[in-house]
Amino acid sequence: MKMKLYPLQFEPILKERIWGGTKLKSYLNKSISSDLTGESWEIATVENDVSIVKNGFLKGKSLNDLINELPEAILGTKVHAQFGKQFPLLFKYLDAREDLSIQLHPNDELAKKRHNSFGKTEMWYVMQADEEARLIVGFKQKSSPKDYLHHLENKTLLSILDTKKVKQGDVFFLETGTIHAIGAGIVIAEIQQTSDVTYRVYDFDRVDAHGNTRELHNDLALEAINYDTVETQKVYSRNENHSNTIVNCPYFTTNFIPLNGSSMISKNADSFTVYMCVEGDFEILYNNAIYSYSKGDTVLVPASLTDFQLAGSASLLEIYIS
């Protein structure tokens, strides 16, 4: 018997971080008890952090189990052909109460060689930003390993890095090798390749509750850094009830949908689609059923669901692999 799939939500995987806070609870309504919750992993298949379905008759099943049973129906014919039974993306919300470490991620080639992992191309959508909140993205001017090391050793690295003041709705696309940090006072929706490989190069000399500093990865980072200047901020349209492209790269396509009323979605079965609700409330109408979501919710629409309707008043990120 063919299983009738439906829009899937997953239990959030919550991560305490030295820089985390309470906005995932106060702003996104996540059930957190810690005052240091930095991340909510919404859809993940990282080892030891695999998402579990929280709605419908598949409740309690892991995403990996579903993909193993129904690879093309979940992932899509094209995604399955490219990635096998691997879910290629990771979706998160982040709350930076303090500055994150200055870090970067290796490309696919280095990540495969060193860690047997994908690289980590990622994008950020700023959901909320305090006054004067900033991001660090890349170098102010073209740098070099020698120049970079000089500033790192003299604790003047910040002087050569580019900072951007941010507001709600700003989007940044970070290719691998881009040195970066999320600044204090920002809530972000993050879309990335499935990878947990991060090279931390400077952590503001912070210590944890036990007086320990966090591990740095400066030797690994040297070969992985892109020393050129990069243009990371994305400008995009906001046409109501339409999919406005923000990012279209080999790893994912992300569109912005300002939903005001309803929008019919008709697509092929090449790829799954994910919706991240970054503002408001919306519904998915499929197969005579209504599925309701609010700000901070993330939903995976299996690839086999090719015709459905979005309705409500919301700002949505729509993500798939093209």
Concise synopsis of the structure shown:
One of its GO terms (molecular function) is isomerase activity. The protein is mostly beta strands.
Can you describe what's shown?
It is a single chain. The protein is mainly beta and 322 residues long. It has two domains: 13-234, Jelly Rolls (Sandwich); 244-320, Jelly Rolls (Sandwich), CATH 2.60.120.10. The protein has seven helices and 20 strands. It has a seven-stranded antiparallel beta sheet with strand order 1-2-5-12-7-10-14, with no helix packed on it. The longest helix is centred in the middle third of the chain and has 9 residues, at 145-153. The radius of gyration is 20 Å and the shape is globular. The two termini are 30 Å apart.
For this structure, the quaternary state is: single chain
What class would the helix/strand composition place it in?
mainly beta
| Unreliable residue runs | none
**Strand arrangement, major sheet:** 1-2-5-12-7-10-14
What is the overall silhouette? globular
Main sheet: strands, sense, barrel: 7 strands, antiparallel
Percent of residues in helices? 10-25%
pLDDT averaged over residues: 96
